[in-house]
Model the fold of this input.
Amino acid sequence: MKNAARARYLAIAESLLVTLILGSTLVLAKIALHYLGPLTIVGLRYLLAFIFLIPFLLRRGIPAKWSSQVWIELFLIGFSFYVIGNGALYLGLNYIPATTASLLLSFVPVLVLAASILWLQEMPTKFQVFGITLGLAGSILFFIPGLKAGEPLGVAIVSVGLVTMQCLAFWAGS
Done:
């Protein structure tokens, strides 16, 4: 029982850490935009992640086992998510507050649902439709006051990036 309790507390601590990191990402990116360009921030973010994680992959010998097809798929998915998706997100942060960008990211489940229906012919359950509808209702409440000058451009940039990212990811994975 002692190990189970320890594992539970470790899982909770890890969840809190991930929430803290992901929750602060856009706020920190917004601050960094005063000093660096959006694509530079994205590049540095994922370069640091690569440097941190590559020893774990090399220790297990995983990259050596991958075929060229896997490398191509990983490149396409990485390009769509990191360069296009996050590049557009950070570029859009020049025009919108971090809260608006975070809210736009909450539309990803809608894009996943649409892509699942179109490419995978998976029909959503009533519970999934209810959850997405509830999320969209909250989004509508957020945008009722309207957007400030310049914000529609930021919303458009982030939206195009998210849709493009989703399409390329599904295309690369199929």
The chain has a mean pLDDT of 80. The helical segments are 2-32, 38-60, 62-65, 68-92, 98-105, 108-120, 126-143, 151-173.
